[in-house]
Amino acid sequence: MKKDLRPREEKKAAVIHDGIERITLSFYKYVKIADPVALQHELVQRFGSLGCFGRIYVAHEGINAQMNVPKANWDQFDAFMRNTPEFVGIPYKFAVEEGKIPSFYKLTIKVRPKIVADGLDDASFDVTNTGEYLTAREMNEYVNNPDAIVVDMRNAYESEIGHFVGAICPNVDTFREELALAPKILAEHKGKKVALYCTGGIRCEKASAWLRHNGFADVKHLKGGVIDYKHQVEREGLPNKFKGSNFVFDERLGERIGNEVISYCHLCHTNKTDKYYHCQNEVCHVLFLGCEACLKKKYGYCSYWCLVFDRLPEAWKKKYVCWYNANRKPTHFKKTKLRASWTIKELKP
Length: 349
Ligand SMILES: [Zn+2]
Ligand SMILES: [Zn+2]
Fold this sequence. Notes:
Elements: H1 8-16, E1 22-30, H2 36-49, E2 53-59, E3 62-70, H3 74-83, E4 93-94, E5 107-111, E6 132-134, H4 136-144, E7 148-152, H5 156-161, E8 162-164, H6 175-185, E9 193-197, H7 202-213, E10 219-222, H8 225-236, E11 242-246, E12 255-256, E13 276-278, E14 287-289, H9 292-297, H10 304-309, H11 314-327, H12 344-347
Parallel strand pairs: 2-5, 6-10, 7-9, 9-10
Antiparallel strand pairs: 1-3, 1-4, 2-3, 8-11, 11-12, 13-14
The protein binds zinc ion (ZN) (2 copies).
One zinc ion binds near residues 267 and 294.
């Protein structure tokens, strides 16, 4: 397949206006894949020809996919999945809501050393010693049980907009950090029953094995994560113990689980919102929760600083970024992703 070289905004607009109904889903499986590169090529060809979009990671240890499939091609997609030996029995997790904008507008399939970046040395512990699964009903019992703890295995920006009632939500930016911290943070609860959860369940597979390895005897995890919890709660008429929104890793950035908004705007800290935005200033690009009033006032930037910066002449911006790269002083751009074309090298004659 030919590489699509159109700019990001153009690609996105094309998908928004194509009128094609899409089904957003995610799935993962820890399964031995002998030749990830060959599988990558096959998936690019297959999913590409079906008009699928999404982000898929393939590794020797398995596959992890978040994607959408045109409704009209669903049967072909499903038949391919069922006829591929590695994917047999893989459970699909369907999005709770499709949203106004498409979940993905391009197809990215990558070969990675691992399907989730966890920073663990898999040879140092038994990764197959995972905890048992919990159903939504059982999860609710854990939430109500004072002798049990419920632990959010996601990052702080995910748990901020939604989490289980009373859950322990570590203040971390990555799963890697979370795994490193978890045994210490949870040490005081070692005698208790532990229930883990994440978005779709994949992170808990590793996390439960890791905690068991670290001496937590009774560790279980929510099957299918928050996404499947929502479906089970609706199907079985169970009380919803997950408050707020579920952060999702696509253009939608979040899907409502209940009707409650529990988080506040990062700019005014007054208005409630569960909508994440990336700062309009490409150099900053920070993820922030924004209310409508603040977005209007700051034109979609995270701050006036970024609003002004983005209006500087390109040469000045480059200079600033070069200075930043050279000095690495703590500035406003704490988690900056610098434009490749703005590296110091490029400026040298
Ligand atoms: Zn605000
Ligand atoms: Zn910004």
